[in-house]
Amino acid sequence: MCGVCSHLDSRPCIILKTGLSLIEEFERITEGLSDALGFTRTIGLGKETVSYEQGGGRGALGEVDFYTSHEGLMLEFEEAMTREFRIPSSLGSPQGSSPKVHYNTSAHFLWIGDRTRQIDGAHVEYFRGIRNPIGVKVGPSMKADELVRLLDIVNPDRENGKVTLITRYGAGKVEDNLAGHIRAVQESGHPVIWISDPMHGNTLTSASGLKTRNFGTIISELTACLRIHAECGSHLNGVSLEFTGELAEDGFSVTECLGGSMRLSEDQLPLRYQSFCDPRLNFEQSLDVAFLISDHFKKERTGSKRSYGDVLYSELGGRKLA
């Protein structure tokens, strides 16, 4: 067992094999985060010792807005959790004079799956009637004109923030589909939020029969999305990941997805495979993705020609951004 990254066998750790380059880049990013937190403490933020719930003031750093989300798959359940309310006055409607609308109270945000997004299907009919912000999974079988017609149905008033498109093509299909979908939405004038789901299109079955995903293909789809959005004059607004910080009984991370800085191999999957559904990134792999994304947007924000993330992308098995 590696003492540096909890690598699971006797092979040299990837961090050591690459001259500590990954550790150096991770430390560079965490030092920046530490400096930012230190600055906030210096100017007096985060000093509230009593929480808001216990009578203290509202603090800029001491609170978390917590939202829930799930796929609206079981319509019987979703319908039972639907209630009629007046539009809040905080949204611009005078109290008592606003029309009543339907909200799904089982979650703040619900999405339509790629298998249940039929234009004339029951799921789309239900989703067009609720006031919640909603998501739509967009896969490789979605035609560009079909996507625009779907947006016309669920957001006829073209309300900003109403619809999030969650793309899930697979690393081998993102190049053939994403640009066309972006252009179709741009030409339609529909305001949408774009999110990449690099997990669901990259599921495979190992030789032992376990469902798994390869970290390299996950970040390949993610980096392709970032590049294609930039080339189309669009912007990727978020990433949807399945991950867990859960530890097994022996105190180490789960082993459900291949690769990452741990270089998890196929024969190691059964060691701590705990998911009853889809394979999840473990704690270390989740940090790998977080560092990659944060470094990309830091480069974009600062206009830096050199990206520390170039080292991370190449060593974690993905493709570098153009």
Given the structure, what is the number of helices? 9
CATH superfamily of one domain: Aldolase class I
- Number of DSSP-assigned strands: 10
- Reported by name, the CATH topology of one domain is TIM Barrel
How much β-strand is present in the residues?
Answer: 5-15%
Family: Belongs to the class-II DAHP synthase family.
GO molecular function, one term: 3-deoxy-7-phosphoheptulonate synthase activity
Pathway: Metabolic intermediate biosynthesis; chorismate biosynthesis; chorismate from D-erythrose 4-phosphate and phosphoenolpyruvate: step 1/7
Pfam families: DAHP_synth_2 (PF01474)
What does this structure look like?
Its EC number is 2.5.1.54. Keywords: Amino-acid biosynthesis, Aromatic amino acid biosynthesis, Cadmium, Cobalt, Manganese, Transferase. Mn(2+) binds at residues 200, 242, 278. There is one protein chain. With 322 residues, the protein is of the alpha/beta class. The chain has a domain at 65-197: Alpha-Beta Barrel (TIM Barrel). It has 9 helices and 10 strands. The protein has helices at residues 14-17, 21-42, 75-80, 122-127, 144-154, 174-188, 215-231, 283-302, 309-315, and strands at residues 69-71, 82-86, 100-104, 109-112, 134-138, 163-167, 193-196, 203-205, 211-213, 238-239. Strands 1-4-5-6-7-10 form a 6-stranded parallel β-sheet. It has a two-stranded antiparallel sheet with strand order 2-3. Strands 8-9 form a two-stranded antiparallel ribbon. Strand 5, helix 5 and strand 6 (163-167) form a beta-alpha-beta unit. The chain is globular. The two termini are 36 Å apart.
